[in-house]
Amino acid sequence: MGGSGFDWKLPHHPKLPKGKVIGLIVLDGWGEANADQYNCIHVAETPVMDSLKKGAPERWRLVRAHGTAVGLPTEDDMGNSEVGHNALGAGRIFAQGAKLVDAALASGKIFEGEGFKYVKESFATNTLHLIGLMSDGGVHSRLDQLLLLLKGASEHGAKKIRVHVLTDGRDVLDGSSVGFAEILENDLAKLREKGVDAQVASGGGRMYVTMDRYENDWSVVKRGWDAQVLGEAPYKFKNAVEAIKTLRAEPNANDQYLPPFVIVDDSGKPVGPIVDGDAVVTFNFRADRMVMIAKALEYADFDKFDRVRVPKIRYAGMLQYDGELKLPSRYLVEPPEIDRTSGEYLTYNGVRTFACSETVKFGHVTFFWNGNRSGYFNDKMEEYVEIPSDSGITFNVQPKMKAVEIAEKARDAILSGKFEQVRVNLPNGDMVGHTGDIEATIVACKAADEAVKIILDAIERVGGIYVVTADHGNAEDMVKRNKTGQPLLDKSGNIQILTSHTLQPVPIAIGGPGLAPGVRFRKDLPSGGLANVAATVMNLHGFQAPSDYEPSLIEVADN
Fold first, then answer.
1. Residue 207 lies in a domain
2. Residue from 272, 274, 199, 284 nearest 240 by CA
3. Looking at the structure, do residues 75 and 109 belong to the same domain, yes or no?
4. 422, 465 in Cβ contact below 8 A?
5. What CATH number should be reported for the domain holding residue 413?
6. Domain interval for residue 350
């Protein structure tokens, strides 16, 4: 609970009363996009969410949930549940992803952290392997970060280093991989002059080797595993530049889809298979295309392909790639240190809090909401309830998930009179949206809408206030599109399904019988984002937010 000597007391809001019960609903993966047949939220029967939008225009708006609004480097970075809930709970924007890595490298903190200390235990006797995208695109990785990691690792005792490169051509120009390989080979040559045995060990194109996502095609990861771990690939070369130039000269070749290759010594032996005792770091900072390789490297129990040989390694990611799966369990760069979250302030100011979701998003509505912090701020003031998610099936099989159960727990908490804030995450739009099953996602959106109704009905009964929002988009657009927004087709003429999050804004709606007359969304914050929600909620609880919080989205008009 709050630090000693720090004043946690929030001033009262001059125009808004304290003590109202607030139902705070986060719809996961629920963005706002054009209405067409690939917008599952539009297609689904969602009368409750529709009514919030059509009801009072001054009490419904969109907020940004991607890119710089949630601390990610660029406006091309999709939001995700971790950074989204960080922003919703913290009320301020904290650096995430690449920015965190930059800071950790610049300060040298990366080499003092638990993750690096763990992989360092292999340096005396074994090899350090670095696997990732060789690119300066800044979307998944950056070459300058790799070069700093190489330099730092060698200065901290790595005697033998092998780099497993994936060529880009997607976030950067096709063909740029040759220049990147020359820069990398140049730095590795300098390390060799200093007595470090450093060289490229394998490679391949990102879309054909290693970097699949959302369990779309495990054969992509297997091709990487075979080259990186087993030292087996259809092509063998003496160095990476020669490999990339030669393979690019084949008809229809491009960086994204280069076939896997291994680098061999003069006797034809691969120079860098991963063996027992080695250390492995995946150096991409963006998570979505690292989760699958992380599973293959970390999980003892793994059945997605035959790994043939499973070396006992020390593995760490650049960052933790999945907060739900806690994967990987070791990572070089810690998530942002987020202090003074809205949850801590409100608990300190007498707001009793109930938070609930099912397993896949329970951590988001608690741990990530509270600034990457486990447990209660005050167990006498808070209650967190986790409903077990369905296991052993994909979520499109049971698209309703636990939405009703979550809503019923929230309803009971609201009606109990024990809590002033009842906070839930309804995961359906996101978890079912990731499966790419459009019909199931439509069912999922309807189920989430029905859950919202259960909670809003309870708020109505106790004279409370509701805040309904989302953490990022997903279910509102289920098809890949070209630059003009038209759906992309595959070779057979079928639409290409989009299973990922999106760059779309998300709605926020306020209302309920407890909402003071004259409360409306301000017109002067058009670029408001998720981080503005915390101050908004504090106001609705009857408090003014701390001065360094992103400004509240609401104002109170004099009637």
1. yes
2. 199
3. no
4. no
5. 3.40.720.10
6. 22-92+337-507
Token representation of residue 403: 């939405």
Residue 28 annotated as lining a ligand binding site: yes
The rounded mean pLDDT for the chain is 95
- Give the residue from 263, 282, 317 where a domain finishes: 317
Domain count, the chain: 2
DSSP secondary-structure letter at 276? T
**Dihedral sign from CA coordinates of 301, 304, 307, 313:** negative
Same domain, 66 and 39: yes
Identity of the residue numbered 525: L
Distance in angstroms (rounded) separating the CA atoms of residues 71 and 65: 10
Residue 4 annotated in ligand binding: no
Q: What pLDDT score was predicted for residue 559?
A: 65
Residue 250 reports pLDDT greater than 80:
yes
Does one domain contain both 88 and 197?
no
- Please name the residue ranges forming H helices in 156-250: 177-193, 218-228, 240-248
Of 388, 310, 378, 386, the C-alpha closest to 346 is 378
Q: The domain spanning residue 236 has which CATH number?
A: 3.40.1450.10
Instruction: Consult the annotation and say whether 471 binds a ligand.
Output: yes
Is 136 among the annotated ligand-binding positions?
no
Reported as a single tens digit per residue, the pLDDT across 112-145 is: 999 999 999 999 999 999 999 999 988 899 999 9
Q: What are phi and psi of 494, to 5 degrees?
A: -90, 155
Among 250, 284, 317, give the residue marking a domain's end.
Answer: 317
Residue 213 and residue 306 in one domain: yes
Together in a domain, 355 and 284:
no
Instruction: Give the separation between CA 42 and CA 23, rounded to whole angstroms.
Output: 24
Residue 179 is given by DSSP the state H
Q: Pairing relation of β-strands 465-470 and 506-511?
A: antiparallel
Question: Which of 35-49, 161-175, 176-190, 450-464 shows the lowest mean pLDDT across its residues?
Answer: 161-175
Residue 206 is assigned to a ligand binding site: yes
pLDDT in tens, 517-533: 999 999 999 999 999 99
Burial class (CB in 10 A: 0-12, 13-18, 19+), 214: middle
- Diameter of the chain by CA atoms? 86
Query: Is residue 238 domain-shared with residue 349, that is, in the same domain?
Result: no
Whether 86 has a pLDDT exceeding 90, the answer reads yes
Report pLDDT digits (tens) over 378-416. 999 999 999 999 988 889 999 999 999 999 999 999 999
**How far apart (Å, rounded) are the C-alpha atoms in residues 78 and 474?**
10
Q: Are residues 129 and 260 in the same domain?
A: yes
CA distance 197 to 484: 49
**65 vs 97: which has the higher pLDDT:** 65
pLDDT tens for residues 162-221?
Answer: 999 999 998 888 999 999 999 999 999 999 999 999 999 999 999 999 999 777 789 999
**Are 64 and 135 contained in the same domain?**
no
Please tell me whether 364 is known to bind a ligand.
no
Is 81 noted as a catalytic residue in this protein?
yes
The response to whether 170 counts as a known ligand-binding position is yes
pTM: 0.82
Report yes or no on 135 lying in a domain: yes
Q: Is the pLDDT of residue 1 over 70?
A: no
Whether residue 10 lies inside any domain: the answer is: no
Catalytically annotated residue among 51, 81, 342, 552: 81
Quick check: is 515 in a domain? no
The residue with greater pLDDT, 97 or 381, is 381
226 is in an annotated binding site: no
